[in-house]
Write a structure and sequence with these properties.
With 308 residues, this protein is α+β, with helices and mostly antiparallel strands. It folds into three domains: 183 residues, Jelly Rolls, CATH 2.60.120; 57 residues, Arc Repressor Mutant, subunit A; 50 residues, Homeodomain-like (Arc Repressor Mutant, subunit A, Orthogonal Bundle). The chain has twelve helices and nine strands. Strands 1-2-8-3-6-9 form a six-stranded antiparallel beta sheet. Helix 5 packs parallel to helix 10 and helix 10 runs antiparallel to helix 11. The longest helix is centred in the C-terminal third of the chain and has 20 residues. It is globular, with a radius of gyration of 20 Å.
Length: 308
Amino acid sequence: MSNSLEHSKEWAAWAPVSEGWRPLQGRFYSEGWSIESHQFQSTREINWAESFHGNGLEICFNLSGIGRLNAGKSSLEFLPGTEGFYRVDPASMRGARVAQENHHFVTIELTSNYLKKHLEQEIDHLYPVVQKVMEDKKSTGELGMTRSLTMPHRLLASSLMNPPVQTSAQGLWYQGKVLEIIAEILYLPVQEELFCARHKRVARDRVEEMKRLLELDLENPLSLEDLGKKIGCSPFYLSRTFSQETGTTMPQYLRSLRMEKAAELLRSGKYNVTEAALAVGYNSLSHFSKVFSEVFGKCPCAFPLKPK
C-alpha cells in the first residue's frame, strides 16, 4: 500500500483533530513499522481505533488524557502517565479518547512480519498477545496491558517527537529506537522470588504514589519530608526506595518531570520560555535554560513551539 494511501486513511480517522496528529517516521505496510505523535483537545469523543492498521501490534506512550479500548468483552484504559500495548483490528475494536481533555500520546505500530523477523527466536519470552500477533492467530483485536510510564520512557517519547540527530540520520535513528522499545516493553519480566514479592510491591506502590504527588504541583513540589509524612515512611527510606526502583534520585526525577512539562508547554505554542520556566518552578531563566539544554540538547528558545 502506498504511503499516501496509508496516511489518507489515518487523516480520515483524525480529521476532527487533524492538526494534532503527526506521522513521525516509518511506513507500516512497506517498512513494517510507523511512529506517530498525537497532541490535541477535542470537543467530542474520538474513536482512535479507526486509525488502526490491520494485523499488527501497537505500543502507546500515554503522556496525558484518558484513552479507552474495547475488544469484545475486554477493556483497557490508558490513564495519564501510562504505557501499554494491544493487538489492533479496526473492525472489532472500539477506542475512545475522552472529550474536553488535553491528549498527548505517541504510538508505535508494528506488523506481524516485522515482529517475526526480529523476534522469531525469542517468541517464548514474549507476552502472549505478542505471540499471537506473530503466529497470526485469530485476526481480531486483543488487549495487552498497561503500566506506569517510566521517566526514561517519558523522555524517550519526547525524543521521538524531536530527534536529536540531523535530518539525514533520522531514519536510522528511528529504526534503532523501535528495536529499543520492543526490547524494553514486549518481553515477559523475569519471575520474582516469592518471598520478596510483597516487599517489592509495597515499594513500587510507594514510589508510584510519590510520583503522583510530585506531578500534582511542579511549581511548588512537596519536600522529601512532606512526601514521607503523606506516604507513611521516613524520608531516608523513601529516598533510598525511590532510587532503587527508578534508577534515579528524587531531585533528578523532579528535574526531568519539570523539563518534560516545560517542553509540552512550549510545544503548545501558548507559553513563551519565561512563562514555561515559571510554570514548572524555575525563577531563574538562566538556570532553566541551562537545565533544559542539558536534557534536550538544545536551548528552550530553539525548541519548536508547535508541532509541524
